[in-house]
Amino acid sequence: MEKLQAVGDGEPYLHFLSSFLDRRFGHVCVQGQKSEQIWFENQVFQGTVLGPPLWNIFFADIISAMSRPKSGKAFADDLNVFHEFDRLVEEQVIMEELASCRDRVHHWGYQNRVEFDGSKEHFVIVHPTRGVGNAFKLLGLVYDCKLKMDEAVDAIIQRARPKCKSLLRTKPFYNTVDMILQFKTHILGILESNIGGIYHATSTVLGPLDRIATRFVHELNLEVDFAFLRYNLAPLSLRRDIAMLGFLHKTHLPYAHPHITDFFPQRPGTKIWDITGLSTQRLQHPDLYCRSLFHLVHVYNALPRHVVQCKTVSTFQHELTSIARSKCSQHHENWQTFLSARHFQGRLLI
Fold this sequence. Notes:
This protein folds into four domains: 2-43, no CATH class; 52-123; 137-233, no CATH class; 239-350, no CATH class. 49% of the residues lie in helices and 7% in strands. The protein is built from 17 helices and eight strands. A two-stranded antiparallel sheet has the order 1-4. Strands 2-3 form a two-stranded antiparallel ribbon. Strands 5-6 form a two-stranded antiparallel sheet.
């Protein structure tokens, strides 16, 4: 507020904010019947444009209750607290520390008149081999504590498979173009949901997803390569690779959040990422690393110069699709996997 007053033109903004937070009354209407007058005060009204930023301002200092080196991420009123422990620390010590952090957050809530729902609180240890706790949902995706992502993939399959079966029952009434259009409209988006969260899963876990798309193509009496060339329906695995490479490309453009770009430091004066800092993780979990987005960086670094110089993500992905289409039409054996992190051998065959 002091900054606004110093500029000299902040008074209208202060009056607007004061009016927004001022006491007011409202009614509840049910089937045309209006309730008695209800007064609203000392609150931010849900559904308003100013609601989220005002809540974030009020909620921001909860980070101080966690005590460093913990970090917290808040999405609206959904708070997640993370802390990195040495892999030799015992499970009991980790759980005690998490409980202590929870108590400090609750104390902050008591001081700031914020009440947390205890039924939605849980502790988990996320680790590829020592994960502990039940699966949890974060931003719509189900995570298991060992990051196998099998439960997440199962949830996607349960949504997509019935729709695919229903669509195939209508095959006698539609031509191939319409069937593929319906598949892209109603099913493909489900199969591709949460790509970033499941990308590192093993081929065994991701296989059922790929088979749904492949089976649909075969039910139309088409081959996978012909469906790609004729109807622009690329294999699901190739679409995942292009999608995640597009995510990496976004870090070069002025759209990515700093929290994302911090994971991928660039060498000065280049568009090449320096990920040597991940060598420890690569040695501890080599299989996981080779399937991950971090190993996909090597694929990105090996792309042709004209591709990485694309000014938009859509143009970048269009270029990759064109390369894949060219390889497919020339019957290259690796046209489905040449952009895959898990198949990359140190040289990109384009």
